[in-house]
Design goal:
The complex is a heterodimer of chains A (175) and B (281).
Chain A lengths: L2 E4 L4 H6 L5 E10 L2 H12 L12 E3 L23 H9 L4 E4 L5 H9 L3 E4 L5 H5 L2 E8 L8 E15 L11
Parallel strand pairs in A: 1-2, 2-3, 3-4, 4-5
Antiparallel strand pairs in A: 2-7, 5-7, 6-7
Helix pairs in contact in A: 2-3, 3-4
Chain B lengths: L2 E4 H17 L3 H13 L3 H20 L9 E9 L2 E4 L3 H15 L23 E7 L4 E8 L1 H4 L3 E5 L5 H15 L7 E8 L2 H11 L11 H14 L15 E9 L6 E8 L6 E4 L1
Parallel strand pairs in B: 1-3, 2-4, 7-8
Antiparallel strand pairs in B: 2-5, 5-10, 6-9, 7-9
Helix pairs in contact in B: 1-4, 2-3, 6-8
The chains are: A alpha/beta (175), B alpha/beta (281).
The complex binds iron/sulfur cluster.
Chain lengths: 175, 281
Amino acid sequence: MSKKITMPLTEKTIESLKAGDEVLLSGVIYTARDQAHKRMCEMLDKGESLPVPLAGEVLYYCGPAPRGKRIIGSCGPTTSGRMDPFTEPLLENGLKGMIGKGRRSSGVAGSIRRNKAVYFVTAGGAGAYLSAKVVSCECVAFEDLAAEAIYKLKIEEFPAIVAIDSKGDNIYDKY
Amino acid sequence: MSRKIDVSLITAKVAELFARANTELRPDVLEALRELYEKESIPNAKSMLGVLVENAGMAGKEKIAICQDTGISVVFLEIGMDVRLSGGSLKEAVDRGVEKAYSDNFFRMSVVPDPVLRENTGGNTPAVVHTDIVEGDGIAITVMPKGFGSENKGKIAMMNPTSRPEDIVAFCVGAVRDAGPDACPPYALGIGVGGTMETCALAAKKALLRPVSSVNPAPHLARLEKEIKQKTNSLGIGVMGLGGGSTVMGVCVEALPTHIAGLPVAVNVSCHALRSASGEI
Ligand code: SF4
């Protein structure tokens, strides 16, 4: 049975999530992939404030296909590991959750534990299926990056699995 | 007698094939996923395989991309030697077809013309085009949108000529172990053995065009396929890294003549969204 989770993630919710739990996520998340991560970290380095406040928020590693006449195009996760070099500063700045696919570095796993955050994985390559779980989509930053811009998504019962929980337990530790 | 073919026909065919490849999962791949679903015993891995089958159904019905990464556009052309092309450049005709498919169908533009500057100019072009001249007066076109989550996991080794089949197997299994859960397993593996560095890599990519569960007619290569499949499916990665035996849905090995001093081996990893479509003019 999947646990139903509503964003924003509270401390209590985060603590209740255990690696391996199947969840259905509802609420607001923001997409960000390679170039948006690079830019956000450059802005933090320069002491600038980010275009979206990250405190308490969840990032989805996703570059959606264009929407056409739909709410959003195909929108599955991209490989999380490529975001590893940029993730620790974002967690230090209050990011609470991430959704992607695949493994994270030990540095990121440690930072998830220290900052009491959570890392979810969702069905890689099931972009058509996942697009039906998105009820609204709006570009909120870095519009020039097209698919790599930051989109604010409202999702309903979006399926995911807890891959790294706030205690640092990790479903991929066996590799 | 030569047959005159206007390149606009190539544009139209390339556009049609990319639209199909990105929205309709290959029947052989769907069949392989269904089989894994039936066999899978780990509950959340089984439910994810169910999602993948459902995803393919939705994409086909609603004509949207199976995966948002609609890939870099790889095109294989076999042009008959009795064909005379007219009406413009072949390369441009292919690129126009790609642009048309990707803009008409709202596929994601994922190609940056310069790898260092990385500016995305849209259009998903230039396409990667491989052309062969063959007998006859027709053109056979195969398109393959290749996602980069899995392309990034490819590997090539210039092995010693004294290497044994076990060494080839070990290298290929290692590539899957390194890919782990990151590139959307269940994977299909296209493996090139022999040739030169570049033809080996190309043979690996072309092997992915074979039906995913097909077996190489040469017994020694079929044995390699079988062993690589067995060993990779014992790694315990499974769909989405959830464990279980659904790590690799198919292994296709293609061999090429090579030099006495070497044994190139290339592994081209494909995710479960293994997409291609073929047509003729
Ligand atoms: S690896 Fe394949 S299925 Fe996964 S996101 Fe990339 S193209 Fe899609």
